[in-house]
Write a structure and sequence with these properties.
69% helix; single chain; mainly alpha
């Protein structure tokens, strides 16, 4: 019984230390994202633009291009480039980063705080939707979304080609087992 109490006490102390560390991580996340949140109106005025990765522009231009993609390794490398620009594909299991619930809560709180700051700084612009249209920011935002969609489509196409050619992941979906 004494041992259970001492183990519980140690676990409680460690959890408290982790919660404090998580809170500091959340504060740091807000500190690093504060500049982007405060300057969000610059996006609306088209004075600052989100850069579109080259791999997404190439996918937008020709999503079904298979030039120089005749081996599983080259298909896998192209899928990796797309993963870098887009993030993990839906067929990939979520990464187990080992984070604690307190760290996840701190991340969620930091994101909510940054969203609130971003919303506050952009809400003071009267006729924001018209300003976005007239400045070209709305058109650029649509171009970014189009490039992302083309990148996702290309990644799916390449994984289908990889499956057809009996390639192992990442040149094929994560669940695919190549025939020997």
């Amino acid at each position: 019984m004494k041992r259970i109490v001492s183990v519980s006490l140690v676990a409680l102390v460690l959890a408290g230390c982790n919660a404090g560390h998580s809170a500091l991580g959340g504060v740091e996340q807000v500190r690093t994202g504060l500049g982007d949140a405060v300057t969000a109106p610059l996006d609306d005025l088209n004075l600052r633009r989100q850069l579109i990765p080259t791999v997404l522009l190439q996918a937008e231009a020709n999503p079904y291009d298979l030039r120089n993609l005749n081996q599983c390794t080259t298909i896998g490398a192209e899928v990796a480039r797309l993963d870098e620009a887009l993030g993990s594909d839906t067929d990939e299991p979520p990464r187990q980063d080992g984070s604690y619930r307190s760290e996840q809560a701190a991340d969620a709180a930091a994101k909510a705080a940054l969203d609130a700051i971003r919303t506050t700084t952009t809400d003071f612009i009267p006729g924001r939707s018209w300003i976005r249209r007239l400045s070209g920011a709305d058109q650029h935002s649509r171009h970014v979304q189009s490039a992302i969609q083309a990148g996702r489509m290309r990644r799916a196409f390449l994984k289908g080609v990889g499956m057809q050619r009996n390639c192992a992941p990442p040149a094929a979906p994560g669940w695919f087992q190549p025939r020997r």
